[in-house]
Each structure stands twice: as C-alpha cells, then as structure tokens.
Specification:
24 helices, peptidyl-prolyl cis-trans isomerase activity, 703 residues, Chitinase A, domain 3, 4 domains, Periplasmic chaperone PpiD, Trigger_fact/SurA_dom_sf, cell membrane, alpha+beta
Length: 703
C-alpha cells in the first residue's frame, strides 16, 4: 500500500518527464540541432577566421561539388574522389573566409573588364587556353571560346552553373596571384646580403678537425629518465608542437577461402562446363555465368600466356579447362577461327633514345644504335644487349620483349616495320620514331587469325559460411580482450595472429599502415567514449576482419613526452654523450689533434676538409654540420677551437689555410640568386593566412 501511495504521489512528475521526452523526440532535431538550447555547436564542421561552418552548409556544398563531378565524369565518385572533393570544398571556405578578408583590407579585386580579358581578350588565362585547345592541332582557338559563350544560354542549367563556377575560380586565382605578388615583389635583397652570399660561396678554407661521433658511445651505456625528457621538452616547446593522434595495436583475421570453398567451386565449374558444352548460345551462357567480363573473338595479343599455349591444341566444339589465372579459374569452349582485318605480331626491341636532343646528340645516338645492330648481325645475343643498352626499361628487363601487339598499336614507323615483315628475325635497318632509334627483332610472325572462345571465369571467394566462421573467431577475440593484458594473452593463445602497431594516427587518416579503407577504425579510436586499453568491436576492411586496442592518445593542447619519446630520447641521449665526450677531451693536454685523438682512444677521428666553402662545405664523417663549419671558418690559420658540440658529435676544429674571395664590384648575380628564393612566398603566405585565421578543422568527426 505504501508503494502504491508513493507512485501516486510521483505520477505527476512521471507524466511530465514522459511528455518532455516525447516533445524532444519529435522536435529534438530542430531545437537541439546545430545550436542547441544547452549551448555549444555539435554540428560545426570547423571554424575559419571566426566564421563557423555548419555541417548542413558544408554538406550542401559537398553535394553540389559531387553532382558536378559525376555529371562531368559520367560515373559515381569513388571514396578517394569524395575525399578530394571534401578537401576542395574546405579550401574554398578558407578562400571565402580567410583570404577574402585579406583581399578586402588591401582593396584587391578582379574587375569585370579584367575577367573578360582573361576569358576572351588579349591575356587569356592558361586554364581557358587548356580547355579550348584543339586536340588535333594542339592550337588554342579563341573563336571557340566566343562561340561557346554565345551558345551558353542554350546549354543545360548544370553546364551554365559549371561555367559560372569556372569563371569564379579564374577570378579567385587571379586575385590570389596579385596578393602573393605583393609579397614577392616586396622581398628586397640588400647589397650587404648579396656580398655575404658571395663570400660564403667563394671564400675557401682547408680545415682539419678532430671528430668524436655520438654513435661511438653505445646507446645502452646511457640511461635516459622521464624527468630528463620532460625537462628537455619544457625548454624546447616551440620545436615540438602537439597534435591530436591515437596509437593502436591490432590483429587481423584474413577472409580467405577454405578447402570446402575450393571443393564447392570445383563442383560449380564442372556443372558450368556441362552447361557450356550443350548451351544453344554459348556466348550468352558464358556472359551470364562468368564472374569476369570476357570477349568472344580473341587475337593472340589479347590472350594470357597460358591460353596462347593451350589454344593450339583446342578442337572446335570442345570445352577445355579449368585453367587458373591468379585466383580465377577459366573454362573455354572453342569455336574455331576466322580472319581479322588487322594483324597481330610479337617483337622485341632495343631503344636508343634521341627524343628532344640536339643534332650532335642525335647523331651520336644513331651511331650507337648502328653499332649495336652490327653486333647483332654478327651473332651477338639480343636479350643481353637489350638489357644493357635499351632506354625502354620496362621491356629491357625482359630482354627487350614487347609481347604481342595489334597492328596500329605502336607508333607508325615501328608498326610499319614489324608488319611489313613476313616472317621472324632481326630487321636489318634502324627504325627511327619520335622516341629515338629502334633495333627490332620479330619473334612471332604476323597473323590475322581470331579465335572464337566462349570463356567463363569463376573467382574463388570465401562463402558466407566461411565469412561467418572467421567473423565469429574475430568477435570472440574481441569479447575476450577486455584489457591490454587480456589482448596480449589472447594473442599468445592464437599463434597465427601477429600484433601490428600504428603510431600517432592523425584524426583525418583513412589508412592505417598498409591497411586501406580503415576510416571506421580511426573514427572508433578518436571517439570520446573509447578509452585507453579498450579493445574495439570487429571491423571489416580489405577482405579481413580487424580487432584493435587503443594504447595511446596525444592532445594538441597538452603535448607529453610520450608523443615524442623517440625523438626526445635521441636528443637527450646525445646531450649526455656530448657531456661525457667533452669532459674526456677537455682533460687531455696534447699539442696536435692526432695526439689528442690517440690519448682519447677508440671513436676519435682526425680528418681534413680541403678547399671547401662555407655555403657548400661537407665534412667527411660528420656530413653537413653548420656549427662545425662556422667555427672552422671563424678561425685564423693555425688556430684551434676549444672542444664544442656539433650536430652529430663533438669537435675540435683547426684551420690550416684560407683563400679569401677576390674583391668584385658587381654582386648582381648573387643578389638575383637570393631574390629568386622569393618563390617560397606563396607557401609562407598560405601558412601565415591559415595561422592568422585560427582554423579549427572538425571534419574528421563527420567524415
């Protein structure tokens, strides 16, 4: 009775809760959508220059881009292409929000007259020229642009929209060029800078140095603690920028056919062979039952090596096979032959390239080719000469073999030479094409015979029963792996499993190591509900099931030593080694570098760098070490430095001699060289604009 009274007392509250729940269920998408009543924006794809990009807006633009792509290509966009379209749409937002503010502040724009000039005037854009170049002549035709524009109103709406988008992109490219040019022409190189560049390139010195590389001290003798790593990271925050990433370990369960699947396929092929033998229309029967598309009439150039060898023994009306090609089994019904209008032949060649060369180089190439032809006519081995001399590397690896090809498939001079020969053997003259000079050997005579073959190809694939059994095994593994320890224990039980590690996966990743189409695994790893040392459900990708366990996280706002452990350990270990080496070297008193090295013992090298410059100097064992070079060039002849640490080890430098750069009055060449480096402006401007726009990219949470 007391319980019933309590229920009655709270019935009003219960009714209210139910009513609110129903309202939220019905209209929750509207009031809790992009901007919920509780604050926050769960539907924000990102933020650029203070502008929030809503998911619905982004998806609308993405759909428009995808539809335009598919209308132009005539097919559905692949996953990789959709990823590229998402990147294009995102970059357009950056232009609209980040760059446009910069343009507006500077008053940069493209006028209507300027746009007309770019499309059909005296300064036509390269993009327009490329789009309206005659494919037969390779010449741009401005009249075709004008004709297209006059007819634009008669085209379908989607084509009109595509042109408008194209013109918009032309204007955006032009205004961006103007913006970047402001930085490029604003880059000025002073005479002092040019003179410094000249001195660095022209002043020569001969240096002698003692070098003790870090690797001379065994890593295992140097202990690095987490405290040392944390201290180093704290002092070098600017060098180690954090970013959101995940580290996982995973095992795979390949979905492969079993013995039962093989038996089932064999029985199916026997059944199809009987059907193919008695089918009133064998080509239709083959087309309906084949897993792979095949044709009815085959030339030798279209056959696999196996079929070329077998077809010679086929009897008209017979069903032959099965023949295995990779993971597909073929049966063939042979229907005899007929003559084709085009011939097929097989040949090998040696190419001596002369494409785009000068007259003298072309003559040299002809002479070399003629010499090889003479050697072959004297009995030399064609395959060996092709492998050693042919510029066509793909065929050279096969001794010059080009395989079978149809008449007209090769460039005309080559094709004419091969198909004008009635038999086999070496063609007794050089054949010149746009690629160079060819020495040709016909290895199979021309033929225009076509073989009528109705083919059925059946690919061995795992049955649903097999897939279910493998999935059940993967699922059981996932269920038992409740922790990292349990995951490791399950791997020990199943000897066939190999644990793989993927370190620091970015949130936008679509692949994991060599595993393709792994987007769902990445999204699981970044899900807020996924904890470290938690195993995943079973994922399917690339004909395998995958079970992963999250072993690490990194946060862009709070980088830790674990995010950069390997890099930090190397730096700190080398610091400790440098201290040990420096202490030992500093305690040695000796007059020459050789004497110091002898007292130091194993690991100390004494080397010379003769007549090198500061700009391009390279030390034999130490490699490119700016610190060491700077110290060496800063000495006077006969003087030595104290012990110091370079990039890859510890040094004592001694300058043997130096040759000052001759005095010159004109540094324009060096000034121009430095000025040319302003090509980096485009990249640097882009980075600065993005940084200034404080871009927040949340696309990985939606796609």
């Amino acid at each position: 009775m007391a319980l019933i009274n309590k229920i009655r007392e709270r019935s009003g509250v219960a009714v209210l809760i139910i009513a609110v729940s129903l309202i939220l269920f019905i209209v929750g998408g509207d009031i809790l959508g992009a901007q919920s009543m509780f604050g926050g924006n769960s539907q924000a794809v990102g933020e650029i220059a203070g502008e929030t990009i809503d998911y619905k807006d982004f998806q609308l633009k993405l759909d428009q881009a995808r539809q335009a792509f598919e209308a132009q290509s005539g097919r559905a966009a692949s996953e990789a292409e959709q990823q590229s379209l998402r990147e294009q749409v995102w970059n357009q937002y950056i232009v609209d929000f980040a760059y446009k503010k910069e343009y507006d502040e500077l008053g940069l724009k493209v006028s209507n007259d300027e746009l007309v000039d770019m499309v059909q005037g005296n300064n036509v854009s390269p993009a327009i020229q490329q789009s309206f170049t005659n494919p037969q002549t390779g010449v741009f035709d401005k009249t075709s642009v004008i004709s297209y524009l006059k007819n634009l109103k008669n085209l379908p709406p989607e084509q009109q929209q595509a042109w408008q988008n194209f013109e918009k992109s032309l204007a955006q490219d032009r205004v961006r060029q103007k913006y970047e040019n402001l930085f490029r022409v604003g880059t000025y190189v002073t005479r002092a800078e040019a003179e410094k560049e000249y001195q660095a390139q022209t002043t020569k010195a001969t240096l002698k140095y003692l070098f003790v590389p870090f690797y001379s001290v065994t890593d295992t003798t140097v202990k690095v603690t987490d405290t040392q790593l944390e201290d180093y990271l704290a002092k070098h925050k600017d060098e180690y920028k954090g970013f959101d990433s995940r580290t996982i370990q995973y095992v795979t369960f390949p979905i492969v056919p079993t013995k039962d699947d093989s038996t089932e396929l064999y029985n199916r092929i026997k059944e199809l062979a009987r059907g193919l033998a008695t089918a009133p229309n064998d080509s239709t029967y083959a087309r309906i039952n084949s897993d792979v598309p095949t044709k009815l009439y085959w030339s030798l150039s279209e056959m696999t090596d196996q079929l070329k060898g077998a077809v010679k023994s086929f009897i008209p009306g017979s069903v032959n096979g099965p023949y295995r090609e990779g993971n597909t089994y073929f049966i063939y019904k042979y229907g005899g032959t007929k003559l084709d209008t085009a011939y097929t032949a097989k040949a090998s060649h040696i190419l001596i390239r002369a494409q785009g060369t000068s007259d003298s180089a072309k003559a040299e190439a002809r002479t070399k080719a003629a010499d090889l032809l003479k050697q072959l006519q004297g009995g030399a081995n064609f395959e060996q000469l092709a492998a050693a001399n042919s510029a066509d590397q793909s065929s050279a690896q096969r001794g010059g073999d080009l395989g079978y090809f149809r008449q007209g498939a090769m460039v005309k001079p080559f094709s004419d030479a091969v198909f004008s020969m009635s038999g086999t053997g070496l063609i007794g003259r050089l054949v010149e094409t746009d690629f160079g000079f060819h020495i040709i050997k016909v290895t199979e005579p021309k033929t225009n015979v076509l073989y009528k073959i109705a083919a059925i190809g059946k690919t061995m694939t795992p049955s649903q029963t097999t897939r279910d059994a493998i999935y059940a095994k993967a699922d059981q593994f996932s269920i038992e792996s409740k922790s990292k320890a349990a995951f490791d224990e399950s791997v020990k039980k199943e000897k066939s499993l190999i644990v793989q590690t993927a370190n620091r996966i970015p949130e936008s990743a679509t692949n994991i190591n060599t595993m393709q189409n792994a987007r769902e695994i990445v999204r699981w790893a970044f899900n807020d509900d996924t904890n470290e040392n938690q195993a995943s459900p079973v994922f399917e990708t690339d004909e395998q099931y995958v079970v992963a366990i999250l072993t690490g996280k990194s946060d862009k706002d709070s980088p830790t030593i674990n995010d950069f452990r390997d890099e930090l350990t190397l730096k700190v270990r080398n610091q400790i080694k440098a201290e040990q080496i420096t202490k030992k070297l500093s305690g040695i008193q000796a007059p020459t570098l050789e004497a110091i090295a002898q007292k130091y013992g194993a690991g100390a090298l004494v080397e010379n760098a003769n007549d090198i410059s500061l700009a391009t100097g390279f030390l034999t064992s130490a490699g490119l070490d700016p610190i060491a070079l700077g110290k060496g060039f800063g000495l006077k002849p006969g003087k030595k430095t104290k012990v110091f640490t370079g990039e890859n080890g510890v040094f004592i430098m001694e300058q043997v001699s130096s040759t000052p750069a001759p005095a010159i009055g004109d540094y324009s060449m060096y000034k121009a060289n430095l000025q040319s480096k302003s090509f980096q402006a485009s990249f640097l401007v882009n980075e600065a604009v993005r940084e200034n726009a404080k871009v927040v990219d949340n696309r990985a949470k939606f796609f």
